[in-house]
Amino acid sequence: MYFRNALGAATAMSLITAGALSAETITIATVNNGDMIRMQGYTDDFTAKTGHEVEWVTLEENVLRQRVTTDITTKGGAFDIMTIGMYETPIWGANGWLVPLDNLSAEYDAGDILPAMAGGLSHEGTLYAAPFYGESSMIMYRSDLMAKAGMEMPDAPTWQFIREAAAAMTDRDAEINGICLRGKAGWGEGGAFITAMSNSFGARWFDMDWNAQFDTEAWANTLNFYKGMMDESGPAGYATNGFNENLSLFQQGKCGMWIDATVAASFVTNPNDSTVADSVGFALAPDTGLGKRSNWLWAWALAIPAGTQKQDAAVQFIEWATSKSYIELVAANEGWANVPPGARTSLYENENYQAVPFAKMTLDSILSADPNDSTVEPSPYVGVQFAAIPEFAGIATEVSQEFSAAYAGQQTVEEALAKAQAITNEAMEAAGYR
Amino acid sequence: MARAVTQQRKIINTAAAWGIGLLIFFPILWTILTSFKTEAQAIADPPIFLGFDWTLENYSVVMERSNYARFLWNSIIIAGGSTVLGIIIAVPAAWSMAFVPSKRTKDILMWMLSTKMLPAVGVLYPIYLLFIQLGLLDTKLGLVIVLMLINLPIIVWMLYTYFKEIPGEILEAARMDGATLKDEVLYVLTPMAIPGIASTLLLNVILAWNEAFWTLNLTAAKAAPLTAFIASYSSPEGLFYAKLSAASTMAIAPILILGWFSQKQLVSGLTFGAVK
Amino acid sequence: MATQHSRSAARVMMAPAVILLLGWMLIPLTMTLYFSFKKYLPLRGGDLGWVGFDNYVRFVSSSAFWPSIQTTLIIVGGVLAITVSLGVLLAILLNQPMWGQGIVRILVIAPFFVMPTVSALVWKNMFMDPNYGLLAHLWKFFGATPVEWLSQASLPSIVMIVSWQWLPFATLILLTAIQSLDSEQLEAAEMDGAPPIKRFGFIVLPHLGRAITVVILIQTIFLLAIFAEIFVTTGGAFGTKTLSYLIFQRVLESQNIGLGSAGGVYAIILANIVAIFLMRIVGKNLDA
Q: Which fold has domain C73-286?
């Protein structure tokens, strides 16, 4: 029965877009995350509906960024669709490098995209990339270890509570670390985490005149708290741990708590991969009572580079991959817990999905992050765990390298912050902000 | 007595050489072994060496996810094509340097080698723009040309050292017999230099096969070789050691096998003029 | 001896290689020079005009510049020292009579066939990972705390990975050279009662001079450009940023083509200094 619906939708779609006179082959650059790899497996469904073929270029995240950025800035035209994030989309959109997605079909229902996601993927109100999945970050914790420690996780804990709970759950002999967090260098890895965390400590990257703020007490507090807690209760080598490393640690039962992307919830509760699947609880990312929590906002989205010859086919693909019917397709084959989350309002209104244990906490986390107002003191930039300016990726990567060196004990927190301050001001001067 | 000593020495030599050889080879062996484990066994503590349930699951997952045959074919064409083209261009140059040397010959050789020192990443942007203009982006031809240019200095130098070892009298004798320049190169020189050419060929196929900067940055879907194939398995979400090992094994196996079969040729010729 | 005819023929035959390489050098070089005098920010609209030597000044005055030169030299020097010294020892060992010499040789060459990306991934994940890596298990087996290789010993780890890749190359060339050594000379020395160390120092090592020169020259060219090993393992963190990695950060991560191009020019200068240095010191060996 599902199949007939899908066919109907496909017919409607091709009637509306009406560009598909002949079958085309589109080239899509994407990241090698689980949901994207799953999507590749369903390519046949798209081809059956539209006649278009798809060539996949699947790359590891850092290589992908490097690859698509080179291509878009040189107008190389190697790809018809690029998988990009909330950081790139507004910048590229502002440069006129992306095809505006303002003409999507009624069937697609663009109004159904979660406002937080649509906002982050737009420039001046025009949508430039359609979210394939969206995420915030939240606490995932082991309910059994929490009970053993005699503590109870509130829905919205403070950092102080987290630190105490981490220390209580840590059992070095049993190789259980109270808390696992990202420390790996890279703006999208440890850099994203510490920036989101700093928001809750009242820190910000820049003041209203674009001066770096690493010489403030708020940043020193953030970093000292992080390092202190991780040295007490974190895993060995946390300075090189990113999302993947922590995911496998958590799945192997070696973490009491893990604060990371909400999409991880479906991996840690999947009994095929996770040894702790049935004892995972969720809570909002912690705060310090200053009014901002430490959760971020991100989406992996599909965008069409301006100048592609295959725009119609590309639009059709995006409408297929980010549609309600794609979600149903995945749900029918792999269960509701495995559908791409965080992109559509209707998903969270669906009763089947509401039964998924992490659905509510994911939505609450997403709703509590506001890219336009992410810091306690006012800041001139948009973005929660990043500042949506072209220079940020380069600066934040270097800054996070200094932080990682401090986590590893190669320099003190003060030295790292001093270097971060110098690096940032230097780069902002070079770019002409100061 | 003397015999016993040599025998004893041989045993010690054998043990030491095998020990070191296995140690050096171990990372590759471990990768191959891991590729036949399940993801859970791949990170088991303590590690399992042989007593695991051998499975081909990782290979079937990789085969299902990526079009391995196309990556492999692209690698073969790009590595083979750039090497053959490079040799065709280098043979005459190396010949003239070896047999009609001038004061500048050594300078030219050194200059050629110095072009290899241009940092690739510094010129990515100009080259990318050039490739767009010439329509070479994501084509095998484009990569054949770039890799040929990158390896040309090495090829010229290797061939030069082989040609130099060929005694000049033979060429003179051929000239006396009325051989033209073309005959000289084709029928006298080349046959004598076959071992050297073979070894040059092998070394440069290996270098081209393993080149990972240009092959990754100048391709998308159509011309992407095995280096790009690896980039899609390098750090996905979740456990990945076993699948990474399977993909790695698939990426290095062809060149490893080629290298093993031809190691005699490679070894005998790999001197760069280091032996007089 | 060469006739006028063969001279001009020689020139014609050399032409394709020379012209191609000249083009391969000049076109990117000119473009790099051109960009290096511009404020060129692709994400801010591209070409923002001429800026004179600003990029050059900015690139050297960055706090990351001198450490990156140091890192580059440490990696190149470290790998050369390890591969040459172990290569000599290994070549001598492999030249001894033994059973299964061919198979041992195959085992020793194998790392040379492995893509740098693959070897970096394998070392990073399956050996140097502080939780799941084989080295961590080994350390734990002996009751020691596992080393966090890529953060606490980042440079030595990278030197080790790269040395593993290049040891076969050094060994092969040195082995070929040793095999050409006159064995009678060695036997005579042995008869005269010269101890092994003297035989090595006075006969073997001088004979290998030329081969060592070649190994150093070729490897330096490749080592100055290593990239994948750093990109995959540390991403430039923990003091592993080489000059070419710094340029990568400027060009691709910061999207500052002008600044990165100025860095490219510095890298060319550094490479040529190293080349001249090498020529001076070892060039004599290459004559004839």
A: MetI-like fold (1.10.3720)
